[in-house]
Amino acid sequence: MKLKLSCLFFIFSLSVFSQDTIQLQPKDSLSHWRNKNKVGFDISQIAFVNWSAGGNSAISGLIKGDFSRVYTKGNQKWVNELIVRYGLNKQDGVDLRKTDDLIQLSSTFGYRKDSITNWYHSAKFNFNTQFSNGYAYPNTEKAISRLFAPAYIFLGVGTENASKSKHRIFYISPFTFKTTFVLDQTLANQGAFGVTEAVVDSNGLIITNGKQTRTELGFLFSSYYKKEIAKNVVWVNKLVLFSDYINKFGNIDIDYDFRLDLTVNQHVKVNIGAQFIYDDDIKAKKQIDGKQVTLGPKLQIRQMLGVGLVYTFLNHH
């Protein structure tokens, strides 16, 4: 009796939130803090053996965290949030590649004149960067981004409208400083991410190094909307618009992020989303004929689909 293996196809996908905690204070507590922690790890794997349709075996992993600390007392509110993500992918015959990379810290302090109004006088701080080098694959010799290259800081004052009944928050700031950091001198010399590039002589030798920072003063608008649009379907929208007063006012940097959270049951959830970024200070790079070529600014798109197991518990103290 002969046994012939003609084909084998195997897929494994796992998405687990290892912890999702919300710490609420009882009414008689002296603390005014409300804490939320969410840590997750996703892993997916696909393997082929003699598969007639063809395909490459691959494994992917993503670790993510979302931590928030909210302080409320009287008419004061201070909201702090840290979001981190890092993902990798490995395919047969292809080097390990990064699929996601984010460090994002935000802090907003607001004060309103009474407990009825939804309008707050607010000050906002945002910081964004990444963990590791980024590449224009398949080129892995020249990094196109690094830790703190770039990094962005937004610092401004304005007004915020927060309405629980309308499920939305929007913030308007006529005075926001945006500072871009490129703390890698090689990238700074190239003028990456809008900083002033190096001055070179006719032989290409550097006379003056490129600047590692760039500061802009402009108008910032941001909005957040979260609502259950159907049973067990939650729609989340984030939009950030920024325009510099000094350089090309009216030219708008756009960062739009939307997500659909679908609840299958108490422990299984599906996330579908996409992010769109346009910033004319960010020039796309592409591998052409074995060389890394700098192109003009392009619309950046990131799409996401995740299926996961979720475990949630409340911790009262």
UniProtKB/TrEMBL annotation:
<protein>
    <recommendedName>
        <fullName>DUF3078 domain-containing protein</fullName>
    </recommendedName>
</protein>
<feature type="signal peptide">
    <location>
        <begin position="1"/>
        <end position="18"/>
    </location>
</feature>
<dbReference type="InterPro" id="IPR021428">
    <property type="entry name" value="DUF3078"/>
</dbReference>
<keyword id="KW-0732">Signal</keyword>
<dbReference type="Pfam" id="PF11276">
    <property type="entry name" value="DUF3078"/>
</dbReference>
